[in-house]
C-alpha cells in the first residue's frame, strides 16, 4: 500500500538530463516581470505584426535581479527554461488563443530574455514540403536546444534567421548554423 501512496518518480526527469544540477527558483516578482514582458510581446505582435514585435526581442534586457540566471551552465539553464515554457504559453494562450509557431516562439524567447537567458527565435524554411502552409516554421532555442518543439525539427528545416536580444551574451554560432553546446 505504501507504493501506491508515495509517488513513484519525480516528473522533472522529463525536463532535463539527470546529470544536471536542479535550477534555482525564480522569485515571484522576477517571474511577474518576465510574464509582463511576454504579454507585451504578444500584444505587440497581435496589433502591429512581426516587424514591430521583433525589435522588442532584439532590444530585450534582463530584468533587475536576473543576472544570476545568465551565468548558469547550459544544462541547468535549459532545465530552468523548460520550466518557464508553461508560464509563457499560458499568458500567450490568454491573449492569442490561436497563436501559430512564430508568436509562441517570440513569447517564450521574450520571457527567457527577461530572465537573463540568451534564448533565440529560429525562423526556418522546410527542406521539402507538399503544402504551402508548411513551408515556414519557428521555434525557440537556448544553447542549441529546442525548447518549444521537438529537437528533430532542426533536421527538416533550414534556418533563415536567428533573432535574439543583442544585450544578452551567448555561445558563438557553429559553422553549420547551430549553436555550440556549452558545458
Automatic annotation (TrEMBL):
This is Lasso peptide biosynthesis B2 protein. It comes from the Bacteria. InterPro entries: McjB-like, McjB_C. It comes from Streptomyces milbemycinicus. Pfam families: Transglut_core3 (PF13471). Residues 36-161 form the Microcin J25-processing protein McjB C-terminal domain.
